[in-house]
Design brief:
Length: 308
């Protein structure tokens, strides 16, 4: 029963309002509706426990000698440094192998760019050392102290990124129609691996598109378009290799309104490769379509001649 004699929603939002319309907004949805393909929102199957060096790898062994006790103490100091710093902080762990654990990768957001490509987001899980702020990280580096790039600071960095409300706020307040730009960024771990040696699982989507890249003086990454060949596990890997594995993906540049989004030419396939555009409606390099048309014309001419 309508106590006011008319629909309340019509009074507030207008006579054409519906359950999905508020004010002048008549779109049924403004947020991504496509379910991301490939890796889900949890990212790649990267298990920190599988990647941490085993006690045997850092010299710990079961024995009753004095050296074994010393090595056990070094092993304990090693894992403390792994948790806190990701590198050696004292003489006990000076010559032991360290690694900044985590991987970087691109993931599809479910949104579509104005040029037709899928929009991606770049995720950085390798600790950068700014868990407690960039200024503190710079101060630590300037003093020559050990940077906080261990497992624990990495968790803090990831938590800060996860709790940052700006990406969600931007998605809610934006138009929902992204215009994108190309971004080339390093992927995999800092040693140059793009898959786990333990499980064989890839940490990147579509590993065939991973190419070699290097960092330019201006801080950007440039690629030589050579396929990335993973380092030989039999030889000691080095994070100091200037060549890194990279991928190039379309990421958010700016949000535009629907009119601009629709007007932009859809020149890309969803995977970011160029789409073939022709005015005739078929690809000029697709000979099968041309042959079909010619065959149809020939059959039609033969049929017409036979009727004379």
């Amino acid at each position: 029963m309508d106590l006011f004699g008319s629909n309340i929603a019509d009074r507030i939002f207008g006579p054409n309002a519906s359950g999905s319309q508020i004010g002048l907004e008549n779109r049924s949805d403004i947020l991504p509706t496509q379910v991301p393909k490939g890796m889900d929102f949890l990212g790649p199957n990267y298990n920190y426990g599988d990647e941490v060096f085993r006690p045997k790898s850092v010299g710990v062994r079961r024995d009753d000698t004095f050296d074994s006790v010393t090595d056990a103490v070094k092993g304990m100091a090693y894992y403390m440094d792994t948790i806190a710093f990701g590198q050696s902080s004292n003489f006990l762990t000076k010559n032991l192998p360290f690694k900044h654990y985590g991987v970087n990768y691109f993931i599809k957001t479910g949104a579509k760019c104005s040029n037709g490509a899928d929009m991606n987001q770049y995720i950085e899980l390798i600790p950068k050392g700014d868990a407690f702020g960039k200024n503190i990280g710079k101060a630590v580096a300037e003093m020559g102290a050990t940077e906080l790039r261990g497992l624990a600071p990495g968790i803090v960095e990831d938590a800060k990124a996860a709790m940052n409300p700006m990406p969600l706020f931007g998605a809610l307040m934006g138009s929902g129609y992204p215009r994108c730009k190309l971004a080339t960024m390093p992927v995999g771990d800092e040693y140059g691996y793009i898959k786990s040696e333990e499980t064989g699982d890839y940490w990147v989507e579509d590993p065939s598109t991973v190419v070699q890249c290097s960092k330019s003086p201006d801080g950007t990454w440039s690629t030589n378009n050579q396929k990335w060949v993973e380092l030989n596990s039999a030889s000691p890997p080095s994070p100091n290799n200037p060549l890194r594995p990279c991928q190039t993906r379309y990421v958010l540049d700016t949000m535009v309104d629907k009119g601009i989004w629709d007007a932009d030419k859809k020149t890309m396939n969803p995977d970011g490769t160029p789409a073939v555009q022709t005015t005739e409606g078929f690809a000029p390099d697709d000979n099968r379509v041309l042959y079909s048309i010619l065959a149809t014309l020939i059959v039609a001419n033969i049929w017409a001649l036979s009727r004379r």
